[in-house]
Amino acid sequence: MRIEADRGKCDGLGMCEAMAPDFFEVGEDGTVVVLDERPGEEHRQDLAAAVDACPVSALRLT
Ligand code: SF4
């Protein structure tokens, strides 16, 4: 599984970081940093919840 983040869309509110702090962090420039772009399948449920929580649909699991 791969996490893709569209940093151009990200508004930096940090919902993803709040829901899955091991995988997302809002960086100093106010946009998301993906900490692990290729997480294991065991994290799919948590990551899907974080992706769904993004208010601007900047995140995608592929
Ligand atoms: S939830 Fe979406 S908009 Fe907010 S920091 Fe994460 S990627 Fe950016």
TrEMBL record:
Record-linked SUPFAM superfamilies: 4Fe-4S ferredoxins
InterPro entries: 3Fe4S_ferredoxin, Fe-S_cluster_ET
Domain of life: Bacteria
KW Ribonucleoprotein (keyword) present: no
Swiss-Prot/TrEMBL cofactor(s): [3Fe-4S] cluster
Stated role: Ferredoxins are iron-sulfur proteins that transfer electrons in a wide variety of metabolic reactions.
Protein name: Ferredoxin
Taxonomic classification: Bacteria, Bacillati, Actinomycetota, Actinomycetes, Pseudonocardiales
